[in-house]
Design a protein that fits this description.
By secondary structure, this protein is an alpha/beta fold. Helix content is about 30%, strand content about 20%. The structure holds phosphoenolpyruvate and manganese (II) ion (MN).
Length: about 300
């Protein structure tokens, strides 16, 4: 449920309404827009029966939020949000490029890539230290050693750095070395991992699940992170599995405008994992920007 205040509502009006809600044990989320303030309510709204918030001073209207995700919902927070990093921010004010290798392989490989992507305009270095491989016999990542290389590359270049985490132990380790955590497609509905990320204190880039997950399920996954008190979530479309085999996945660019109507969270598109073919990355990157993405994630290898 949201309470939309009148354009002229005073601070006192807002405090009074928020106070009535909190008194009933519900949580309040304020969104101060340029015109109006919106008070978002999270919790069991039946507790508000008899409160008559509709007629409280300064209230314009009370609207039910029917979607199960609330904090990620655009109705709660109509203005687009952005996520601040030390060297940039991810949101509508920038076109952020996150680039780097799939897996961190060595200090030299990462450092060389870091300087190259910085020169090309990227502001965030990506690289996997924990790799969620289809086969248990594939290289699983350098783990802590890789995280240390990430930190070195960050210090040498000033880029922010992002690394995927695959377990609670990986989170515990990664927070010491990186600026953003990434949840991979295979873990989009790993709810325990999402909750741990919500508590980790770093921004989280949440990739869309690769098979049979809807946009609403994706937004509910982001809600798991936000409900732990972490508002800094970035969504990343990386292609979904369809019957087409000419590309690795099918890049669902319509997800960008769909998300724009449903959520305030920043949206990044990853054309590398979506297409799996170098020649398709550039045209789909351009298409993603045309569709309104706030940035791109691109795999780069020297
Ligand atoms: C990755 O970013 O290297 C990765 C494994 O991506 P995804 O989770 O989208 O498959
Ligand atoms: Mn990869």
């Amino acid at each position: 449920m949201i309470i939309i205040m009148k354009p002229g509502a005073s601070e006192e009006n807002i405090r009074n309404v928020a106070g009535q809600i909190e008194e009933k044990g519900l949580t309040v989320h304020l969104s101060h827009g340029t015109e109006v303030t919106i008070i978002g309510v999270v919790g069991d709204k039946s507790k508000l029966q008899g409160s008559n918030l509709e007629i409280a001073a300064g209230v314009d209207k009370v609207v039910a939020v029917t979607e199960s995700y609330k904090l990620a919902n655009k109705k709660f927070h109509p203005e687009p949000s952005s996520v601040s990093l030390s060297n940039t921010s991810v949101g509508p004010e920038n076109l952020t490029v996150m680039a780097g290798p799939c897996a961190i392989e060595s200090s030299t490989q990462l450092m060389e890539t870091a300087f190259a992507v910085k020169k090309a305009g990227a502001t965030v270095l990506r690289g996997g230290a924990f790799k969620p491989r289809t086969s248990p016999y594939s290289f699983q990542g350098l783990e802590t050693e890789g995280l240390k290389y990430m930190k070195e590359a960050r210090e040498a270049t000033g880029l922010s750095v992002i690394c995927e985490v695959t377990s609670a132990r990986a989170i515990e380790d990664a927070v010491k070395y990186v600026d953003l955590l990434q949840i991979g497609a295979r873990n989009m509905q790993n709810f325990e991992l999402l909750k741990e990320c919500g508590k980790a204190g770093l921004p989280v880039l949440l990739k869309r699940g690769l098979a049979a997950t809807t946009i609403d399920e994706w937004l509910n996954a982001s809600e798991y992170i936000m409900a732990e008190g972490n508002p800094n979530v970035i969504l990343c479309e990386r292609g979904i599995r369809t019957f087409e085999t000419a590309t690795r996945n099918t890049l669902d660019l319509s997800a960008v405008p769909v998300l724009r109507l449903k959520t305030h969270l920043p949206i990044i598109v990853d054309p590398s994992h979506a297409t799996g073919v170098r020649a398709y990355v550039e045209p789909m990157a351009k298409a993603a920007v045309s569709a309104g993405a706030d940035g791109l994630m691109i795999e780069v290898h020297p």
